[in-house]
Amino acid sequence: GKLLQTKSGTCSFLIPIRELSLLVNRDAQDFVEKFEGALGRGKGRKLYAYKIMMAKKWLKFKRDFENFKTAMVPWEMKIKEIESHFGSSVASYFIFLRWMYGMNLVLLGLVLGLIVVPEILMGVPYGSISRKTIPTEEKANAMDYSVLSEFGGLLKYSPLFYGYYNNQRTIGFLQFRLPLAYFLAGVGVFGYSLIVLLKAQDNVNESTSDNDNEFIFGCQMFTSWDYLIGNPETADNKYASITTLFKESIVDEQENTKAENVHLRRFLIVVSNVLITVCLGGSGYLIYFVMKRSQEFKKLGNPSWYQNNEIEIVMSLLSMFCPPLFETIAVMEDYHPRLALKWQLGRIFALFLGNLYTFLLALIDDVNSKLAEEEVIRNKTQWMMYNLTLENNGSTQISLNPADVPRGPCWETTVGIEFVKLTISDTQVTYITILLGDFGRAVIVRFLNNCWCWDLESGFPSYAEFDISGNVLGLIFNQGMIWMGSFYAPGLILVNILRLLSSMYLQCWAVMSSNVPHERVFKASKSNNFYMGLLLLVLFMSLLPVAYTIMSISPSFDCGPFSGKKRMFEVIQETIEKDFPPFVNNVFVYASNPGLIIAALIPSFFSSNYFFFFFLSSSLNVTKNLKNKCFPVLLVLLTP
């Protein structure tokens, strides 16, 4: 048979494999007999074997439980599959989407528990008061699809919007304070979102290692494969993941050793930024112009479908076509893919933020015009109620159908409807882009490639790459609209949850069936950190318009929980005066002194600037030397 040749000094000898195995077995038996006394005989030995068996079963249980926990994480396996084929940068978008879905579930529970459910269960029934009744002139068309698609008719006078809720200080046998709960829920949406964002920011910073780039190729070569994999599908995904990981590392290495013409590159960067600035200014002017023209159409009466939805259509088209235009212009800059992504995110951020604030400025002008109309309607309603009281000889029991009471414009519900329409329009454009732009393009390339004059897969149009920057910014600004609009439309959060849920399934399917990996794949690195920072900035920018309406604009006189008050925040002062001891009211009056507020805001402003610079430097991967030089100077300048 086969022989094993060994050497001992200068002598060599041959031992058959069978005899060698017998020698090894005999040595093992001698070892067991030697230490058998320590292990014990009889019952002790059986007990030891039982302990070994239970330990193995416990380890197996823990491993199965960890697999069960992984399987219970929503969309975890689907995201892992996407990461293995498209890289961590694409997977980071779906992780971000899943995180936002979880945050919105909590916000929905907050709004439902404090506003919607108490009003439905304990408030006055539908049809008993004017704000919960469809006006007589609108009843004929209240259930038409054309009206419901514009969120008018039955939907306008439903719990979806601000105007449905009554201004009674307490409702139900529990004496539930609905106006106070509405105000606190609106503040709580921003408060909870801020806490979650700061916590997520800390988690991302803690999980980031400074030694990710040390011996990267050696570590990937010798430690990437998982030898416990037994499923063929899992093995294929792991193989694709390792291949993608090497591509990412090669791109990073090429960028570090690339030679370039500095002066030409600086010139091209300046040209590209000038072109993008022109695009940003033009989009803002176009939105303002269309918004003002839309208001003129509504004043003339009987606007068409396009005139009713022109502003939403224009904003959606700008969101669709401007990001690809920015990406085309950015080719001149020749940045590293990770840095190019962040610049693209910043430019789309400026586009969306400018468009959103232009839309809000035009919307505030519309609100001011509605407030002027409201005064006339208020006087008409008061005159009618006064005459009816005289006809009833001063009796307060007046028989008047709530559907016939003159209504004010209820500007809060109008604002809420605009945000809901904008969210729905953005969702429709996103889905149409996926179905026609990605899936339709993939079908054409796949089935017409064999009968076309050139190679459609490697040439034009080829398969589409997943647009990371556009999709991330779409999520961020959609969430900004939810934060702003949920105060005027509590049902907007539910609409957003349905949008996120459908987006996860549709985009996961589209990216695996219709997209190809990026030509230059790159690591996500601190992309999640950058996403959270942008979302945090959008949160503060979304808070400003809501705070302005709460502090400066009078609520509608005949709809909403704050009707009858000069300002919305007076519900807090009313609660303190009626439900708390007098000294608490004195403390509240002193705390609202403008001098104290300014003194508290100044250090907060400086500290927030310092925090923002720290976030920006960490997100853009500023070197440690630059941080060490800049931070002491900023600390002296920004800290009082």
UniProtKB/TrEMBL annotation:
One of its GO terms (molecular function) is voltage-gated calcium channel activity. GO terms for biological process: detection of mechanical stimulus involved in sensory perception of sound; vestibular reflex. The keyword Transmembrane helix applies. It is found in: Membrane. It comes from the Eukaryota. It is a multi-pass membrane protein. This is Transmembrane channel-like protein. Pfam families: TMC. GO terms for cellular component: plasma membrane. The keyword Coiled coil does not apply. Residues 410-525 form the TMC domain. The chain crosses the membrane at residues 105-126, 180-198, 267-291, 344-364, 487-509, 530-551, 596-616. It comes from Leptobrachium leishanense (Leishan spiny toad). Belongs to the TMC family. Its main location: membrane. PANTHER family: TRANSMEMBRANE CHANNEL-LIKE PROTEIN (PTHR23302:SF67), TRANSMEMBRANE CHANNEL-RELATED (PTHR23302).
